[in-house]
Amino acid sequence: MSGTAVGIDFAVAERPEPAVAEPRAESPTVVMARNHMPTLPVRPTVPVEPGTPWINDPYGNALRTGRGPLFLRRLSHPDRPDGFGEEHVLPLGDVGCGPGRMVAALAAGGVPALGVDLSQDAVKRTRHSGGAAIQRSAFDRLPGEGRWGTVLLMDGNIGIGGDPVALLRRMGELIAPGGLLLAEAVPEDVDERLTVRVEDAHGHHGRPFSWARLGTTALLNAADSADWIVTGRWTAGGRPFVELRRQRANHPDAQPPITERPHHS
Q: What is the mean pLDDT of the segment spanning 147-160?
């Protein structure tokens, strides 16, 4: 992969905010308010040796220093579909927790939560903030598999691995029957498979990796393919969210009604 971005040359997502940002304001179910970062202007990249994505790259540097901004740089054209502790029961897991603001906020409120992130710096910052976190991939062996009550896929993390259906199926392995998955979609009506990399404002970047961007429609389609039941959808601060449930083993045909929550500006 060359050092120049291919295709549309702008930031397609942001992860994370500067680590010193204030905690998000609470939504009806999770802390869900965040400011979007500015678009990265077109500039030649600085030839540097890229580091491992999410670990030894600008993302890790931002977590260590508390300074941003960061940008997820598109390197490929989207692949659009046709038509467009082992013994503990974990009530909540935040997959791709980043600096751990949600995990720490939940822990402060007495809700046991576990953050999962590939970045050692993300795990350190989460623990420093009072939350629990482990350094692993979402596809690695995780504590309490099959017994998690709730899983969060916030801040574009439905894109992890570049295969949303595979990711949602993996989340189904973590969550107990009847458990809850809260996933954030992008505001646009998109369904993209991409190659991206994390960059900072100076052109320093990590190695390319696979990613995905899903709007609400695409997320609902992926959830259906992964055998999730849609039980809610809403928008808060211009950010769309979907609530999914795993079927209970003793009620395989149960279909809870979809709830349209009030939109929050």
A: 96
Element housing 225 (H / E): helix 216-225
The pTM for the full model equals 0.66
DSSP letter assigned to residue 15 = -
Beta-carbon contacts of residue 118 (< 8 Å; ≥ 6 apart): 53, 54, 55, 135, 136, 137
CB-based burial label for 47 (10 Å; 0-12, 13-18, 19+)? exposed
Per-domain residue ranges of the chain: 80-190+211-260
In the numeric block, which tokens belong to residue 46?
A: 């600085």
Mean pLDDT of 115-125: 95
DSSP single-letter state for residue 229: E
pLDDT of the residue at 200: 87
Return the ∠ at Cα 97 (arms to 91 and 99), rounded to 5°. Answer: 125
Q: Between these two residues, 10 and 104, which has the higher pLDDT value?
A: 104
Nearest to 54 by CA among 72, 36, 39, 74: 72
Q: Are 185 and 212 in contact (CB under 8 A)?
A: no
Instruction: Please say whether the structural domain 80-190+211-260 has been given the CATH code 3.40.50.150.
Output: yes
What gap in Å lies between CA 217 and CA 178, rounded to an integer? 23
Residue 170 has pLDDT above 60, yes or no: yes
Q: Would you say 27 and 95 are in contact if contact means Cβ atoms under 8 Å apart?
A: no
